Amino acid sequence: MMKTLVIQSCREENIPSWIEACLDSVRVWSERQGYQRCFVGDEIFDLVPDWYLAKTGRGPVATDYARLILIREALANQGYDQAIWLDADMFVLDPTMTLDSPGSCAFGQEIWIQEESGKLRARKNVHNAVCQFRRGCVVLPFLIETVASIIRRANPEKIAPQMVGPKLLSALHSLHDFDLLPQVGAISPEVARDIIAGGGAALSLLQEKLRSPLQAVNLCASLMDDEQGALVIAGLPLLTCH
Asked: Out of 14, 188, 222, 223, which residue is the most buried by the measure of CB atoms under 10 Å away?
């Protein structure tokens, strides 16, 4: 079995209880899989160049870069064969989940349900709430250089939260055809509302579009408050009822 490190990052004080539940679900999964786990606090931003932080601040765009550096360190200098990043707001529904992929890297795939022009639509996107890299992967150094290049040239006023994360990966996927992990999805605000309500059109559309069971979901903390997060976790069994 490959020596594997699971990496997560979150602030270390005043963590909401629902985020604690997410972190605990990953801890249980990691232990069951025999993986080691590394938790990083705000020191994650020490890995980001000053010029980069000056443009992005200490937010998701800086974390998109820092996670790649942490993965590189684990593979190059810490003796791991495989490194997996999971966002702090990722909830593992099935602790038997495996992230098997044939290549040297893989990313999550979400079915994002959103209302557009008065109609619910489902779109498949690549996301980096889960990233899996193996030693010797040529994509990793390319991504590190590409992310830095994009931010170096970007207008600070036009840097979007997903600019060097899901948007970049989705664009590259059309060219590279990455290995994807559809078992690790995401919950949009429309689906979250339906989960809290006990059902609805957005949840039904997600269930209709799924081709395999969701075993973990990114709850998108930036799009919901703490009360909603707790209610969504309580209602997550609805995802498996279809």
From this structure: 188
Domain 4-240 has CATH 3.30.1360.20: no
- Find the helix or strand (DSSP H, E) in which 143 lies: helix 139-153
CA separation for the pair 56, 204 (Å, rounded): 37
* DSSP one-letter string for 52-108: HHHHH-SSHHHHHHHHHHHHHHHHHHS--SEEEEE-TTEEES-TT-----SSSEEEE
Task: Report percent pLDDT > 70 for the chain.
Answer: 99
Relative to beta strand 4-9, strand 90-92 is unpaired
Q: Is the pLDDT of residue 100 over 90?
A: no
Note whether 121 and 208 are within 8 A (CB).
no
The whole-angstrom separation of Cα 233 and Cα 229 is 6
Residue 242: what pLDDT?
55
User: d(Cα 201, Cα 180) in Å, to the nearest integer?
Assistant: 26
Separation between Cα atoms, residue 223 and residue 238, nearest integer Å: 20
Question: Is the pLDDT confidence value at 241 over 70?
Answer: no
* Distance set, CA 222 to CA 88, 153, 195 (Å): 11, 26, 17
Q: In what order do the strands lie in the sheet with 36-40?
A: 36-40, 4-9, 82-86, 119-134, 105-116, 179-181
Which residues touch 166 (CB under 8 Å, ≥6 apart)?
Answer: 125, 126, 127, 128
CB of 5 within 8 A of CB of 25?
no
Question: Which is it for the CA torsion 26, 30, 32, 36, positive or negative?
Answer: negative
The yes-or-no verdict on residue 1 having pLDDT over 90 is no
